[in-house]
Amino acid sequence: VNNAGIFQRAKLLDTDLEGAQAHAETAVRRAGRVPAAREALGLVAYRQGDWAKALAEFRNGRRVSGSSHLLPLMVDAERALGRPDRALELASTPEARTLARDEKVELAIVVSGIRRDQGQLDAAAAGLKLPELDPRRRKAWSARLFYAYAEALLALGDRAGAREWFGYAVDADESLETDAAERVDELDGVEQVDLLGDDEDGDETGARG
User: CA-CA distance, 35 to 59, in Å (whole number)?
Assistant: First the structure.
């Protein structure tokens, strides 16, 4: 079992997104009824921000395989498409109860974000109070879970609590997938200094990271 976490696995595609897209499209053309091919194409579309295509491919994969393990990404795609009610409805389907532990954590993170978007701040925080919300544990999802909980607390106005959980996220974030360290500095009032300085020539044509 790959315990990297589905959101983390999707992010890994950034190393060669164009290559991953070409490979996935070829796989779908050759074996369109193979769930892995559909899921791979959906993950590429997800990383590209093509939410409608990602959702369609995830649905195709689920229809063929009968597995709902990408349900958190489907819910997140619905959220990104501006359909929070549909996202929450999908998150509450019976299939959600069949997810593996890491997938349930990822789903809780997405749902918390939706609740926060809707101004349901208490629900956003409460939904993340899982057994996995334990700073003594270090799992693939820990940094994202701690970060999401910090965001929920900050939205509630609990700056001290948010600072504490952003700190836990920093400790758990070995792969630096969040900006938790910057959020801690922000709450501590530490000013970020650009050591490179402004481009004196005014050249703004450089690539963005």
Answer: 10
What is the rounded distance in angstroms from the CA atom of residue 130 to the CA atom of residue 147? 14
How crowded is the C-beta side of 166, counted as CA atoms within 13 Å?
21
Chain centroid offset of residue 76 CA: 8
Q: Note the pTM of the prediction, 2 decimals.
A: 0.77
Question: Over the stretch 108-145, which tens digit does the pLDDT of each residue have?
Answer: 999 999 999 999 999 999 999 999 999 998 898 999 99
| Long-range contacts of 40-46, Cβ-Cβ distance < 8 Å, separation of 24 or more | 42/70, 42/73, 43/9, 43/10, 43/13, 43/73, 44/13, 44/17, 44/20, 46/10, 46/73, 46/76, 46/77
**Torsion angle of C-alpha atoms 31, 33, 34, 39, degrees rounded to 10:** 110
Residue 55, both tokens: 């959702």
